[in-house]
Amino acid sequence: MTLLIMLVALLVLLALRVPVSFALLIPSVAYVIMDPTARIGTAVQQTVSGVDSFAILAVPMFILLGNMANVSGVTDKLYDAAVAGIGHLRGSLGYVNVATSFGFSWMSGAAIADAAAMGRVQVPAMVERGYKREFALGVTGASSLIAPMIPPSIPAVIYAVTAGVSVGALFMAGIVPALILVAALCTTVWLLMRKHEELRLPKSTWRTRGRTAVAALPAAGSALVILGGILSGVFTPTEASGIGVVYILVLALVYKALSWRKLYRTLLTTVETSGSVLLIVAAAALFGWVLAREQAPQVAANLILEITNQPIVFLILVNVLLLLVGCVLEPTAAILILVPVLQPVAETFGIDPVHLGIMVIFNLLIGLITPPVGLVLFVLSSVTKAPVPIVIKGILPFFAPMVATLLLITFVPALTLGLPSLLGFL
Amino acid sequence: NVGTPVDRDEAAAGDADAKTLRLSHVYDAGHPVEECGITTLKEELDGSGLQIESFPAAQLGNEAESLEQVASGALDMAIAGPSFLGVWEENAAVLDAAYLFDDVDNFVDTVEGDTMTEVFDNLYESSDIKVLSSWYYGTRQVTANKEIKTAEDFEGLKIRTPNAPLYLENIKAMGGTATPMALDEVYLALQQGVIDAQENPIPTISTAKFNEVQDYINLTGHMIQGVQITTGRAVYEGLTDDERSALDDAMAAAADATRTCVEDQEQSILEEWKAGDGIEVNEDVDREGFASAAEEAMLQQPWGELYQEIKDGQ
Amino acid sequence: MTEESRLGGSNENNIAAGYTIPQEPDEPDFPEQRSRLYRFAINVERAATCALLVGTLGLIILQVVSRYVFSTPFSWTEELARFALIWFTFVSAGFVMARRIHIAVDLLASKLGRTGGIVLDTFALVVVAAVAGLMAFAGARFAAGADRLLAPATSLPMSVVYSAAVVGFGLIFLHALLHIYLNIRHPEVVPNAMDNLEREAV
Ligand code: NA
Ligand code: NA
CB–CB of B194 and A305 under 8 A? Predict the structure, then answer.
């Protein structure tokens, strides 16, 4: 009963546009006040405890890394290299769009940052070259979901901390699914573009290709620092996030892309996003404490076991639930609320928490491009001035590759668990 | 294939009339603390009018947080190690000092003896945290890629410890260079040679598979460790005499059960390693040498005199 | 990111009020444009959050350096970095409240129209102010009680750590009160529910 009231209160407060952090805090604080065996001091303690974590430190650092990479101009260099490399293909800017996002994904841990950056530059560029606006918006939105699947990834850090699994393992587990997503998106681009003979650029010379590739090479350094550092055991993921920031800072200085003012603004932009997210992390810790105290995982397990004892059915149920939640709630908040309850249940079904993690993350990412509250849709609309319905229309054809990827991730655990176990993380 | 079907057996329903005590700890549900200790506790309390509701895996907070909750009355019971109790009553940390005990019997005698009872009473007076029982948790041993017999063998070796000051001191006293690191990063760090060695109780070494990436387990036995089961003043004073004696008896049974489980595990894993061709077991360790070096260092600690007193009393 | 590309509060109402909409996080919003004292206070928040962010970064780097350069790595960098993150979280949350960009779900709000949106926003602010005030008050008592507990590696009193929540919730409380006042006195400068989306989200 208490659990039901907590849940309803959360939903009502969210609907009334109370910030997510406070929609989590309010019912929790009310619980602590009403339960005579609880203390309000514990509410403060658990809220602080939510961000008392060295692993969570990676969240603001990865946000800073992405923002800094954006300012440093490496995305332009990635774009130039992609155009020179594959510009002669039919519908090339579609592939270029995916490729740039893939390159940028090694520096950015969030989909919104990618959608905003790419939406600003590539959508107008594509429209100018004769591509349909819907297609340009669709491919930009869909490919922005690559960023949080490839390390660094903010949802992966949040999931790892919430579920108590290794951040490194989760980073590695996302790589193969991300590559599948890239392949699925390219296939969709091919299907949509195969008749458009006119949409291709002149073939670049090998000289241009070489020059642009060399210019884009420093961007790969970020991947080297983060992946290499974690894989060699030289840094922890959090330390890698700090080293990555320093690397991009040096790169931006070399490119002469940074003034003091720009640096200050980049820091403040990072403060704006991190402040909001970290307060949700803090508030969710208290909410999770109340759920644990009220035995929510056991209640959920009993509920689910009433319905099924088959892991496949359970996974389908989880997918449906997450797709629905993802439609209204932002991924980090959804992870923080759902994972403490779902993960113990999944464990009784013998599902590896790392496998569940990638499945949950990808599922919630799909929510970013799904109405009514798909944030990528709104951000694309606002940076390109295209009405939201046009963005939705553009993104529709890309749901097929998304769902196909999701089903593969769900039912073939080897795709997620293979790489991390090969590398000694599991 | 994905996962495994679940057997639907009804979970044992609690006794609706019994007084329920919430117990928080940081160990997984499969750990001897839960599987042997708390299970026994629950069984022994059956019908006594008290029942335990266990919250494993730090669901209600880590050790430091759970102790704060117990002290303030927000939580009924918590399990925490001596270093965490030391935050409230300095002298309680002595139990985590290197080479305090010769063996597990020694540990049991000490935690039940007068000296520690006085320390625990002081803790209760100053902080409202009542130690109900001490459970044997395991003996820490050093794994490395070389045999460690004396302090010289430690020279230049980077050895991982948990990030707690006393653990670092213990290793320093033994001649090693301690590097604090989170447990889930240790496997890779050992594999990649970022660190050379680590120390843990044998069951932990086995669960974390450190035996795959280390050549030797050296039976240093430098810390014979226990965890304390604590409750707050309000809860303790709220118990009737019958409930208190039922709780005391159940705690004693649970402490025995935990010790048996942990010792069985330690022994069987060690046997397995001795028989297999993976990690080698080095029993030739100069424990006296390490112990006297440790003693010198531990006397510098704020509870140095107490350390001496416990050692002299053995 | 270029100057004009930044998402602005696309709301004709505020132009009529003679108020320039901030396009960058360092530009003053409506109350900052009206009061120099308030602007100074917000600039202190800006500087404090940036300093905490850079300080945290410094501690991470120091930790790596100390492990590879010195024979004995520092044991306090991790703990201090965690505490810096706690302070960063709560002070930033205060600043984010000043900028009115805490993440919220815009499902219902976007359908309500301007007046309905402002009424709903005011309601949300009242609720936020009440709980933030309570948490700040409870936090102060809790922090005072934790004074005798010292953090293991740095020996900092835990009250220093818990004070972060007092400051953060205190700031949120004050900013919420100010926004309630502005919603009533200057409804024309209230941003629309769908403005600032890009800055809210991760
Ligand atoms: Na990424
Ligand atoms: Na893209």
Answer: no
Report whether pLDDT(C114) > 90: no
Which chains touch A (3+ CB pairs under 8 A)? B, C
Interface with C, mutate which of B179, B183, B186, B194 (most C CBs under 10 A): B179
- Measured in angstroms, how far is the CA atom of residue A102 from the centroid of ligand 2? 8
For the beta carbon of residue B202, count every other beta carbon within 10 angstroms. Answer: 24
Residue ranges of domains in chain C: 3-201
The string of pLDDT tens digits covering residues A107-123 is 999 999 899 889 998 99
Report if residue A161 sits inside a domain: yes
Q: Which two tokens stand for residue A74?
A: 């490496």
Q: How many CB atoms within 10 Å of residue A408? A: 17
> Residue B7 pLDDT > 80, yes or no?
no
Amino acid at A196: H
Q: Which residues surround ligand 2, an ion (CB under 5 A)?
A: A 97, 101, 118, 140, 143
Q: How far is A316 from chain C (nearest CA, A)?
A: 26
Q: How many angstroms is it from A221 CA to the middle of ligand 2?
A: 20
Asked whether residue A38 is domain-assigned, the answer is no
A3 is a domain residue: no
- On chain C, the residues whose CB falls within 8 A of the CB of B83 are 152
A293 to chain B, closest Cα gap in Å: 7
C152 vs B contacts (CB less than 8 Å): 83, 87, 163-165
- Residues B37-54: b if buried by 16+ CB within 10 A, e if exposed: bbbbbbebbeebebbbeb
pLDDT tier for residue C188 given thresholds of 50, 70 and 90: confident
Task: Give yes or no for residue C9 having a pLDDT over 50.
Answer: no
Write down the pTM of the prediction.
0.93
When scoring B157, B160, B167, B168 by the number of chain C Cβ atoms within 10 A, the one with the most, hence best to mutate, is B168
Enumerate the β-bridge partners of residue A280. none
Nearest to B168 among C75, C146, C150 (CB): C75
Q: Which residues of C touch A45 (CB under 8 A)?
A: 142, 162
In a domain, A27, yes or no: no
Q: How far is the CA of A123 from the centre of ligand 2 (A)?
A: 9
pLDDT tens digit sequence for B9-65:
545 556 778 899 999 999 988 899 999 999 999 999 999 999 999 999 899 999 999
Indicate the helix (H) or strand (E) that contains B137. Answer: strand B129-144
Number of Cβ atoms within 10 Å of the Cβ of A67:
26
To the nearest 10 degrees (0 to 180), the angle between helices A167-193 and A399-411 is 140
Q: How far is CA C121 from CA A59, A249, C126, in A?
A: 29, 39, 9
Task: Report chain A residues whose CB lies below 8 A from the CB of B69.
Answer: 39, 42, 45
User: Among partner residues A39, A54, A349, which is closest to B4 by beta-carbon distance?
Assistant: A349
Task: Tokens for A19, please give them.
Answer: 């910030």
Residue spans of chain A under pLDDT 70: none
Structural domain range at position A170 = 54-423
Residue A115, pLDDT score: 93
Give the rounded percent of residues in chain B with a pLDDT score beyond 90: 81
Q: How many domains does chain A have?
A: 1
Q: What's the mean per-residue pLDDT of chain B?
A: 93
When pLDDT is averaged across residues C156-180 and rounded to a whole number, the result is: 97
pLDDT at C106: 77
Q: How far apart are CA C85 and CA C90, in angstroms?
A: 9
In angstroms, the CA A332 to CA C201 distance is 10
Interface touch C75/B87, C-beta < 8 Å: no
- Residue A227 is given by DSSP the state I
Residue of A nearest to B65 (CA): A45
Given an 8 Å threshold on Cβ–Cβ distance, is C71 in contact with B68?
no
Closest CA to B289 of B221, B209, B201, B232: B221
In the 8-state DSSP scheme, what is residue A273? H
Can you state the percent helix, strand and coil of chain C, rounding each to 5? Answer: 70, 0, 30
